[in-house]
Amino acid sequence: MASSGFCSLVPTVTSLFSSHALARWRSSSMSPPPLRISRAFSAATTVPISSSFTWDDVIETGREEYTPHNSSHLTGFLEKVDLCNRGSEKLAEFIPFVIEEQIVGYIHKGFTEYLREFHDIFTFSQNGSYHDRVDGFVTLNLMLEKPEDRTKAVADVIKVLGDKGIIPRIRNELYPVKPSFNAPVIFSLERAAAPYFGIKGYGVHMNGYVERDGQKFLWIGKRSLSKSTYPGMLDHLVAGGLPHGISCGENLVKECKEEAGISKAIADRAIAVGAVSYMDIDQYCFKRDVLFCYDLELPQDFVPKNQDGEVESFKLIPVAQVANVIRKKTSFFKANCSLVIIDFLFRHGFIRPESSGYLHLYGRLRNKDCS
Fold first, then answer.
1. What is the pTM of this model?
2. What Å distances lie between residue 86 and 39, 156, 282, CA to CA?
3. How far is Cα 348 from Cα 213, in angstroms, rounded to an integer?
4. Which residues pair with 293 in a beta bridge?
5. Is the Cβ–Cβ distance between 35 and 109 less than 8 Å?
6. Listed residue (284, 37, 25) closest to 158, CA to CA
7. Residue 85 class from Cβ within 10 Å (0-12 exposed, 13-18 middle, 19+ buried)?
8. What whole-number distance in Å separates Cα of residue 232 and Cα of residue 161?
9. H-type alpha helices, 46-134
10. Who's near 146: CB < 8 A, 6+ residues apart?
11. Structure-derived torsion over alpha carbons of residues 117, 122, 128, 132, reported in degrees to the nearest 10
């Protein structure tokens, strides 16, 4: 199950850094700079990090009749899109992360204080400018010329920050760092650290659906309560982040097997249907995610079976009922899943041009940084 979503900085930090190098950092006992809780983060506290609702609650919420041309429905959909695009007013608090004269991310000015002691790895331009930014930028030591050298050096820093609790939930999974999807990989970064460096993250999300008697149904998964992120919340049948060294198609086949027990023969029928994207700022974290969307029409008698323990259960639900759940003021679904399902609703005729605000909602599913 994909865990790409919102990043709340809740460190259990009792120390910051000493004057020199990684070893002394590990044994330091100074206090970190205070965290400022932004309005964007405060407003997001209505989104649960765990959930105790049942499938009956979901079905009951979705029972109301759904009409594809009802303009009032779009308001609810827009609210779910906005939930994935918080904090744009905080952009000025971030400075570019530049490597090889290309912006690969954005780092919060407050978070840079954790990096400054690693002066043999990170270099700061205090008074310089980059593009339209006049408040400096962060880069890596020019001696780190090769991607593998950068990966190792930054990994050492992330290990320290993880041990200190500054970057929680270390996953030991590498994400590629690059300015755009098709650009060469500049180095690789621990997945849990990606939002703290504002790098672009990519994932694959698949809508698995069945058609019976002219009606479409979506298979929906309920995340395991043991998941470290968004336990118990609703998710796609198959979804996962895109790690280093694997293509979208290969990753989708892998996730299909692990999460739903879908054979390669069936998974290969999945159709790539586009992408959605969002930018979310939450304290020191800046998520710039692109989700590649897939549709897979499944056999009518198919029943998913989770293989990796990350999904508690599955439910086959009429698409119209899923649309009702998303458009209402509910928080059953992991937030970024709503974007992918709203895109599905457009493509399958559940949101129609007769609805006022049709093009506005369609455009909001893809931000200008989608590359």
1. 0.84
2. 10, 31, 7
3. 16
4. 205, 274
5. no
6. 25
7. middle
8. 28
9. 55-61, 71-83, 112-115
10. none
11. -120
Q: State how far the Cα of 144 lies from the Cα of 148, in Å rounded to an integer.
A: 9
Q: What is the pLDDT along the chain (371 residues), one digit of tens a residue?
A: 544 433 543 333 223 333 344 454 454 443 444 443 333 333 333 334 446 899 999 999 999 888 887 888 899 999 999 999 999 999 999 999 999 999 999 999 999 999 999 999 999 987 555 555 557 899 999 999 999 999 999 999 999 999 999 999 898 999 999 999 999 999 999 999 999 999 999 999 999 999 999 999 999 999 999 988 889 999 999 999 998 889 999 999 999 999 999 999 999 999 999 999 999 999 999 999 999 999 999 999 999 999 999 999 999 999 999 999 999 999 999 999 999 999 999 999 999 999 899 999 999 999 877 66
Residue 361 neighbours by CB distance under 10 Å? 20
**How far apart (Å, rounded) are the C-alpha atoms in residues 189 and 193?**
7
Q: How many CB atoms lie within 10 A of CB 149?
A: 14
Question: Phi then psi for 84, rounded to 5 degrees?
Answer: -95, 0
- Taking each continuous run of H as one helix and of E as one strand, the counts in the chain are 12, 13
